[in-house]
Amino acid sequence: MGRKAKMRFDYFPMDVDIFQDLKIRKLIKRQGGKAITVYILLLCYIYKNGYYMKWDSDLPFICSEQTGFEEAYVREVINVCLQLGLFSKSLYDKDGILTSRGIQERYQRICQLTRRTSTVSEYSLIDDDDAEDIPQEPTTTKRENVPTPQPPFQAIASPVPTEKPTRKTRKSTKKEEPAAPAKQPAASSPSSTLDEYINELDKDDIWLEQIQFLHGMNKDSLRNELKKFRSECIANGKTQHESVNDVKQHFNSWLRIIINKKNNESIKPANDKRKGHLLSADGEKEKDYGGTF
């Protein structure tokens, strides 16, 4: 089941010569410049609903609340609009509908330009002959029967360029020289890039202070660890790093492993000394608590 066609507009166009229209000039002449505000507000209500709106006894109050004008003044403006033909007086008297032929023609034109399926059917003021005069967008079916013109350059045979015989003989007799081999870039030392990163870290006092605070080491010890880290990277073949940040992460992880390994080695002998509670099989050996008690 197809979706219901959208009737309302989110916005509508307005002619730049609206104040030159004779009916608008008469409306302003009779009711003042404020009357155009009421008229445009009614147009917004109409296009928000589609192409017409039904009269409601609360409409003057709503317009008064929106514009700040008195309800009596709003009623007078609507009556003048009906008298001038800005709204259809016959439809208003018969069905209480506010619309006009111009509003419906503009609505139908916008629907055709935006390829909407909505049409003016109910309370229509547009004759069938007038509806045919409304310009429509050209469709693809009309363009299919139009033959595509051939480009002019296809009908004209392009002349075949002729070369001088002397040039031909020169080209044929000339030997092609072999292309020179591309020069290979000189291979850099495996540790050249790593040394640059290490020197940069050695001079980065801010980074050294952060590592010093993180691992509880002074700067001299950290610089010595940097040298050990360089030697181990070269020994393990890890000389290529993407950036200085990559070296920082690698060094930080490496240093954490080294510190944890040292801490484990310092704790292990102490644990071995506390094994005095284990009794020997013959009971001859004395317990050794390592002087911890």
String of helices and strands: HHEHHHEHHHHHHHHH
Number of helices: 14
Structure summary, number of beta strands? 2
Strands side by side in the biggest sheet:
1-2
Which blocks of ≥5 consecutive residues have pLDDT under 50?
A: 128-156, 289-293
What is the approximate shape?
rod-shaped
Major β-sheet annotation: 2 strands, antiparallel
Residue share in helix: 55-70%
Mean pLDDT: 75
| Oligomeric grouping of the chains | single chain
How would you classify the helix and strand content by structural class?
Answer: mainly alpha
N-C termini distance = 91 Å
C-alpha Rg, in Å?
A: 47 Å
Structure overview:
With about 290 residues, the protein is mainly alpha-helical. Among the domains are: about 20-135, no CATH class; about 190-275, no CATH class. Helix content is about 55%, strand content about 0%. The protein has a two-stranded antiparallel ribbon with strand order 1-2. The chain starts with about 20 loop residues before the first helix and ends in a 20-residue tail after the last helix. The model is unreliable at about 130-155 and about 290-293 (pLDDT under 50). This is DUF4373 domain-containing protein. Keywords: Membrane, Transmembrane, Transmembrane helix.
